[in-house]
Amino acid sequence: MESRPNPIRVLVADRSEAIQQAISTRLAREPDMRIVNGVASSAELLAQLERFLPDVILLDANLDGQVAEACAQIAARSRQPAVLLHALYDSPELRTQ
Known about the structure:
Elements: E1 8-13, H1 17-28, E2 33-39, H2 42-52, E3 56-60, H3 67-75, E4 82-86, H4 92-95
């Protein structure tokens, strides 16, 4: 598969470095995507937006207590990347559903 001339720039925001790495490794296989950075907090995410100019932010919904505020600040920007929220839960109840 041939890559796009302008790949989709993805910033991964997850509190777990292992999860960041797993997501980045998987998405790096996609020829039309490029991982631009990984961050572990909402403050770090907001600080890195101008530097990396992502098209998409893959955001851990449980990153920290500031996710809603970070999303509001992203939405208020003139250049708004798409924000995809994800969450990982490890509970017996969810495993059986």
